[in-house]
């Protein structure tokens, strides 16, 4: 089961991140502003985020496996559309949004399946193992699209290539993933109680700030390295993708530590450290220094911290809102991944206004520090026991 869920993340992260090294290429080819180019990623994440809660509720009602299979097909068709028909800005927006809509069902169905099967004291570690797929997919997407473009001169081919494993995931899910379904359908009152839980809102906001910084680095990191630090297109994608490598052992370490100690302590270490790293990235002129900072940031970013935060959510939901894990994880990812809509667009706007991406990284660091302040007033958990 863990392997299938890991492969699912690898596929979807390769799909979404292969666009980032090509943003400047697509912008030049279609005469787009930086804000318009950032909107290409925003379109993906707009539908991705919109699907989170509906997909979670559908999984609670009809089964997570069934919902996951259908949405992998939709995500694959979106990638196929970009690869075959994505010759205009409007078509790229449409198929990017279609791909995001399909991918949007994965988070709530993946983690709801996981949390129904694994024991509470292994939630963060299991989430980190599954999250290895995010890092693998991120590295593949960031490092393959630039070389493929430079080899054939088509920005559409990487999407066409990646549509194949995306569609194939529906088959793997059918044969290898267990069926998990909520025993009873929650009422509207149950869902309102879930969405009104302020501790869940605090977890969501803190994770939002962390992911905002991550998506600034992912979406505009290659452009920052290429335009403001003199890297080639392939080098910019490769070195940005290096964050995925250090995220793998770091995610396992932070996840296991939060299972054995508590979630809050880990979050209070990782969040401010990630903010500091983003600030250092804008202050370091040398290539070796930049590479080291990117490697360190990988240890503190999405794949490293998210297993801790989603396990923290699982602790709260299993204790206070049993039977609503699908809706809760959908709500979590809806709130946190809205950062992926806002970060590329706001960062593109700041670049248009200042002719530099440095202010975008500063804004991201400041937001993460605000998330740290929210974590500081969260209840303390040790394993699955609240204190």
Task: Please describe what this structure looks like.
There is one protein chain. This protein has helices at residues 2-17, 23-30, 34-50, 52-62, 64-85, 89-103, 106-117, 123-152, 157-176, 188-195, 198-229, 233-241, 243-260, 263-283, 287-298, 302-320, 325-354, 358-375; strands at residues 381-382, 385-386. The chain starts with a helix and ends with a strand. The longest helix has 32 residues, at 198-229. The protein has a single domain, classed as Growth Hormone, Chain: A. It has 18 helices and two strands. A two-stranded antiparallel ribbon has the order 1-2. α3 runs parallel beside α6, α3 (34-50) packs antiparallel against α17 and α8 (123-152) packs antiparallel against α16. With 387 residues, the chain is an all-alpha fold.
Short recap of the structure:
A two-stranded antiparallel ribbon has the order 1-2. The chain has helices at residues 2-17, 23-30, 34-50, 52-62, 64-85, 89-103, 106-117, 123-152, 157-176, 188-195, 198-229, 233-241, 243-260, 263-283, 287-298, 302-320, 325-354, 358-375, and strands at 381-382, 385-386.
């Amino acid at each position: 089961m863990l392997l299938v869920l890991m492969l699912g993340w690898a596929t979807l992260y390769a799909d979404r991140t292969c666009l980032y090294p090509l943003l400047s290429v697509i912008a030049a080819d279609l005469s787009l502003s930086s804000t318009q180019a950032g909107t290409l990623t925003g379109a993906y994440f707009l539908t991705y985020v919109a699907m989170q809660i509906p997909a979670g509720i559908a999984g609670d009602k009809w089964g997570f496996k069934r919902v996951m299979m259908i949405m992998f097909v939709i995500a694959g068709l979106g990638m196929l559309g970009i690869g075959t028909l994505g010759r205009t800005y409007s078509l790229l927006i449409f198929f990017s949004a279609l791909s995001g809509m399909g991918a949007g069902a994965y988070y709530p169905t993946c983690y709801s399946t996981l949390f129904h099967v694994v024991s509470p004291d292994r939630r963060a570690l299991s989430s980190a193992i599954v999250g290895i797929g995010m890092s693998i997919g991120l590295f593949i997407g960031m490092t393959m699209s630039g070389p493929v473009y430079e080899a054939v001169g088509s920005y559409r081919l990487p999407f066409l290539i990646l549509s194949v494993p995306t569609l194939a995931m529906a088959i793997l899910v059918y044969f290898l993933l267990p069926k998990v379904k909520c025993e009873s359908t929650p009422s509207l009152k149950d869902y309102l109680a879930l969405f009104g839980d302020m501790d869940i809102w605090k977890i969501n906001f803190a994770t939002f700030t962390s992911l905002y910084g991550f998506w600034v680095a992912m979406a505009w990191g290659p452009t920052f390295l290429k335009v403001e630090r003199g890297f080639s297109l392939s080098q910019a994608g490769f070195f940005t993708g290096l964050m995925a490598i250090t995220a793998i052992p770091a995610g396992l370490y932070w996840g296991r530590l939060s299972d054995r100690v508590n979630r809050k302590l880990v979050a209070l270490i990782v969040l401010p450290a990630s903010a500091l790293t983003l600030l250092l990235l804008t202050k370091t002129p040398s290539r070796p220094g930049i590479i080291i900072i990117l490697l360190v940031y990988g240890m503190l970013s999405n794949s490293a911290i998210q297993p801790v935060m989603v396990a923290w959510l699982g602790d709260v939901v299993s204790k206070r809102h049993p039977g609503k894990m699908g809706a809760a994880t959908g709500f979590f990812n809806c709130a946190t991944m809205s950062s992926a809509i806002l970060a590329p667009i706001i960062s593109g706007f700041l670049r248009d206004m200042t002719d530099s991406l440095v202010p975008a990284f500063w804004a991201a660091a400041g937001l993460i520090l605000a998330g740290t302040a929210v974590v500081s007033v969260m209840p303390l958990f040790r394993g699955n026991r609240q204190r």
